[in-house]
Each structure stands twice: as structure tokens, then as C-alpha cells.
Amino acid sequence: MTEPRTPVADLARGAVDPARGAADPAAAIQRARDGDARALGRLLSLVENGAPQLRAVMKALAPLTGHARLLGLTGSPGVGKSTLTGALVAAYRKQGLRVGVLAIDPTSPFTGGALLGDRVRMQEHATDQGVFIRSMASRGHLGGLSGATPQAVRVLDAAGFDVVLIETVGVGQAEVEIAGMADSTMVIVAPGLGDAIQAAKAGILEIGDVFVVNKSDKPGAHEAVRDLRGMIAMGRHGKGEWKPPIVSTTAAAGEGTDDLMSKLDEHRAWLGRSGEGERRRRARAREEISAIALAEMRARMGGLPGDERIDGLARRVAAGELDPYAAADELIAGT
Amino acid sequence: MTEPRTPVADLARGAVDPARGAADPAAAIQRARDGDARALGRLLSLVENGAPQLRAVMKALAPLTGHARLLGLTGSPGVGKSTLTGALVAAYRKQGLRVGVLAIDPTSPFTGGALLGDRVRMQEHATDQGVFIRSMASRGHLGGLSGATPQAVRVLDAAGFDVVLIETVGVGQAEVEIAGMADSTMVIVAPGLGDAIQAAKAGILEIGDVFVVNKSDKPGAHEAVRDLRGMIAMGRHGKGEWKPPIVSTTAAAGEGTDDLMSKLDEHRAWLGRSGEGERRRRARAREEISAIALAEMRARMGGLPGDERIDGLARRVAAGELDPYAAADELIAGT
User: Are strands B246-248 and B163-169 parallel, antiparallel or unpaired?
Assistant: First the structure.
């Protein structure tokens, strides 16, 4: 045990043994709360792998949750999400807050250090006990981002992190899913990446609570801000509604982070004032419950080959004797 | 009604009215079987939108399915999937077969002509009644590729297409999902795209029934073939098992298509001989039934805000009074 026990070292080491960590859920959680990155890593592996102990862990976690501030970052590849994440981590650390980072790659079916390359940029925080960084490329045992991510957030929340940054590569549907998981979602664009703005036009517009034009020292930054402003204006925000601000940053030089944080604070205040914060928290819980219930139902109805009932129905559907809707009805009736 | 009624024109015109088409499901299906691209387009829109008539349509379709040969094509962007698809369409047309193409973009949440740019290359088939091309960028009403795609395939099958080509952009999990939907899956790589081979290494290897090195006139083609061969050899294919062949093509020049088709024929023969074809058909039906049943359950358990029961549970989970697993148990118990 002479090797360094830092978050990045744990990450580099790959998945930890999920069977350890949770022999006594309460003890594992206490260790994670005390800053033991390895205990925390094991709890997160439980979430990814859906080990049997997960239930007991989630039960023990529940009363400890609800304190962390959940911030989402999303944007196309190349806009500088990781750098911006790093800048926010540093800034919140200066305030003495403990910061957890979940970096989610929804396009990869693989778990563990998939995004390790990106994470290397964050090595400045590697020896800081108040920072924990985890890459989750897996869709998790519930078979969807909507299952694994909120549970991982739940673990970090219960482990006492004051801020949890959820960073996602912006690809289609996935980022919309992820957006629902944060209190405040930042949509990051960069000048010259026309497609980022295109994407924003098409669907990201609704999910951004704060828009960030990063790399604002690059040509085209003004145009990007102008385009975003025009699009936001089209949204016609009424009195008392939140009108997403646009912040210009150059995260690599540490510029604009303070401004971004103050906009995030304003959004937080609005969340509290308007009741939207509580509404989002409940919506998240609803999604989480629903994902777990569906996974459980799927298990009960026997989606796996070898289950006699669904196999019989599948045989008839494959033979054209039965349509899949009628088969589904029969399956549900027998559950 | 003087405008040209070709598949591509239908596609360019955007989504058709899903409410028409299925007033009389049997009649709509008959029109589609007679080569009416517009009727077919409407049936596919039902699948995408999950209109209420879908059940009746699927019931009427069931006895007509099971004839089409389902061929999947997947690979990273830039490997030439569309060109290869076009070459296969032309070749099967020469044999007098009717060919349907489903081009799926799993990264886009948007429906309709998202891939239209790509499709332009296939305009040579635009006026051919024996060819139907449809882009599906939507995840469909069942909330997943696994729901919409098999049903679209089912429609084309019932409409009398002899060959259905399912083309997917290779991105992570989605292509693995899609692979399960074809009888034979081609994994396409191109020389010089190191990441394609990386991807193949990481997970595509299991899903390829036939590997295609396209753009084989480019430097690096031999190395790509060699790398693939090495990886396939590691798979240790036993007697009677299918060992995926590697075909070199230059689809843009029409080279290698005959060789590819003969490998696909060999794979088809093996599917029949080994029983694997029937096994795959049943596995597909199982997945389809299960996706529909889960969507139905989700509807019943009220995933939407406003549903009193799940709202009450979500409130308690958000407040930390209840863990999400216990909440899911309560939800299921009351369904």
C-alpha cells in the first residue's frame, strides 16, 4: 500500500474490485465521506456494474443526499469542455469546496478510463483530496445513461462533495438526457465551429441554462455570441422566467471563469426563488425510479434467451403467426 | 399530383402525413406491395411516430413478413458506407430483386431527411420503383433504436422487398444494437483510418459477419486487411463455426461488389445450415417484443409528471426519505 492513493492514480489503475467496498455499506460510505478516494471509486463501480450490494448502498446513501450542487457541461468535441471543467474545479476549490467530476462519454459502450487522455489535463488536481474525477463511458447496468449517471451523482452527493460537475460530449439525444440530471446546465460552444451553433439551433437551445462561448480569443467569437443571442431572443422569455445568459471565456487562460460562476450563482438563486430547482430535483428522481423499475420489469419478463415464455412468443412472431404488439400484450399479462 | 412520385422525391418532401396511409391498414399495405412509395412512406412514418393505427398495421403485416434478406452495414464516418450501399443496391437490382434501404443515424434525435446529403449520391436509383430509400434519424416512439428499426424492417419486409439494407453510422453501442437486427452484418473499414481498426478491435469484431476493407486502392489497404486477419484469427473459430471473411472493395469504382455478394451468399447458406439464421430471427423478435412491452409498462407506470403515484415517490426520493430502488419496488407493486 505504498503506491500513491490519489484519484487519478485510482482511475489509471482501472476498475477497482466492486465486491470489496460494500461489505458494510455504511462503513464504505463513511470512508468515502472522509476523503478515501478508493472507497469512493468502489462505490461508483457498484453503480456501473449493478452489483447485488447496490441496493443496500443506495438505501444507506439516501438520507445523505440533496446537498451537492449539480452542474452540467455539454458541447461538441473540441469546444474545450475539459479545460473549462478544470478551470471551474480550480475556482471552486479556492472557495474551499469539495468538487467531484463525472465525465460521461455516451458514445462509448466501454467502462473505465476511456477518457483518460482528457483527464490528464486535470492532473494538477491529482493530489488534491478535495477533488475526485471519474470517467464513465459505460451505459451502466440499467442499460442507459439515465440509469447510471444519476446514481453516480447520488454517490458523490452522499460522499459530501459540494459541487458535482457532469461533463458530457454533446452528441444528439444523449446530451439532452444528461441535461436533465443537473441543476444548471452549461452549453459550451467555440467560435468557428459552425456545427456547434447548428446543434444549438436544433435542440440544445432548450437545455442551456447558461451558454458559454469558450476560446473567445479566437476569430468568430463575436459572431458566435451574436448568433446565440439572436436564438435566445427568439425563445421569448417572460417575466420571472430564466433568460439564459451568454458568457465568454478563454478557459485555457483562466479568463471568464469568475463571470461564469457568478451567472451560475444567479441561476441557482433563480432555481430557489422560482421553485424550478425543486421541480428539477423531483423530475430527476422520477426518471431514476422509472429507469430502475423498468430494468426490474425487464428482468422479470425474461428478456434473455432461454426464458420459456418470451421464447415461445418470439418463435411465433418470427414465424409471422403473431405480431409483436400482441406478443407484448401476452407477455405483460403473464408478468 | 403531377409532381414526380419517386422515393427520393418523397424523402425530400419531408415527413408525410401519418394519419393518412392507415385508414385501412390492409389497403395501405397492398399499395406498398404494389410499389407505391408514398403509401410505404406513410407506413414508415407510423412506425416513427407511434401513431395509434400502428397496432392494426403491425397485425396486418405479420403474416407477410419473413421473406426479406436483411443485410446490415456499419462503420465509422468516412469509410464509404453509402457508396457501398449504392453498389449493392445496383448489383441486387441487376438480379431483379427489390431493394429497400434504411439509413439509421443513431446520434441524431431528429427524424426525416437528416441524411439527405448522403442520399443524394444514390439518386441514380431515384426513379427506380424497385428501390426505396429511407433515412431514420429518430429513435422512434419506443425511445430506442431497438424499437423503431425492427418495425421499419418489418414494414419493408411485408412490402415485398427481397433485400433490406440497414446502414448505420458506427458509433459505440448503437452499432452493436443494430447488428442484432440483420441476418448478416458487414463491418466496413477504410485504410488509413486507424481509429476504425481500433474500434474493430474494441468491440465491432464480434458483430461482423463479413469485414469489408473499402477504398482498397488507397495506401494502407494491405495493412488494414492484415490487421483484421490477425484479429479474426484471435477469435479462434471452431469447426462448423462461421469465420468472418475479409473482402477488399473500391465501391466508388464498383470493384469487389461481386466478391462481397458471394461472401454474403456463403454466410446466408451457413445461417441456414447451422440454424443460426433462425436463432437470430427469434432473438430479434424477442428484442422487439421486449421493447414494446417495456414501452407499454412505462406508459402504465406513468413516467410523466402529473402522475400522482410516481410524483409522490419522487418527492420522497428527492427529499432523501426513500431510496430509488425502494421507490421502484413500490411503483411496480402498484402497477
Answer: unpaired
> What single letter denotes the amino acid at residue A187?
V
Among B113, B102, B48, B115, which Cα is nearest to B71's?
B102
Same domain (yes/no): A315, A194: no
Residues A268, A313: one domain?
Answer: no
Angle between helices A54-61 and A145-158 (to 10 degrees): 50
This complex has an ipTM of 0.74
Overall residue count recorded for chain B in this entry: 335
Question: What pLDDT, in 10s, does the model give residues B161-210?
Answer: 999 999 887 655 555 666 678 999 999 988 876 655 555 555 667 788 99
Coil, strand or helix at A288:
helix
Taking contacts as CB-CB distances below 8 angstroms, the residues of chain B near A282 are 311, 314-315, 318
Taking the CA of residue A285 and the nearest CA in chain B, the distance in Å comes to 5
Q: Which residues of chain A have pLDDT under 50?
A: 1-22, 109-121, 304-305
What are the grid coordinates assigned to B272, written together?
A: 441456414
- Cβ atoms A38, A16 nearer than 8 A: yes
The reply to whether B33 falls in a domain is no
- The reply to whether A41 falls in a domain is no
Picking from A253, A168, A264, the residue whose alpha carbon sits closest to that of residue A212 is A264
Q: Is A265 on the interface with B (CB under 8 A)?
A: no
Determine the structural domain holding residue A317 and report its residue range. Answer: 284-333
Of the partner residues B139, B294, B318, the one whose CB lies closest to the CB of residue A173: B139
Residue B120, C-beta contacts closer than 8 angstroms, at least 6 positions apart: none
Please count the CA atoms within 13 angstroms of the CA of A237 that sit on its side-chain side.
14
Looking up residue B207, the CATH number of its domain turns out to be: 3.40.50.300
> What pTM was computed for the model?
0.60
Contact status, residue B82 vs residue B123, Cβ threshold 8 Å: no
C-alpha cell, A9: 492514480
Number of CB atoms found within 10 A of residue A198's CB: 12
Helix (H, G, I), strand (E, B) or coil at B130: coil
Residue B119, C-alpha cell as written in the block:
442520399
| Polymer length in residues for chain A | 335
Same domain, A261 and A137: yes
What is the number of domains present in chain B? 2
| Rounded Cα gap, residues A302 and A298, in angstroms | 6
Angle (nearest 5°) at CA B149 between B147 and B154: 105
CB contact under 8 A, A289 and B311: no
The answer to whether residue B189 sits within a structural domain is yes
Distance (Å) of CA A187 to CA A16, A81, A195, B236, B304: 32, 9, 13, 47, 25
Q: Are residues A125 and A261 in the same domain?
A: yes
Distance CA B116, CA B104 (A): 12
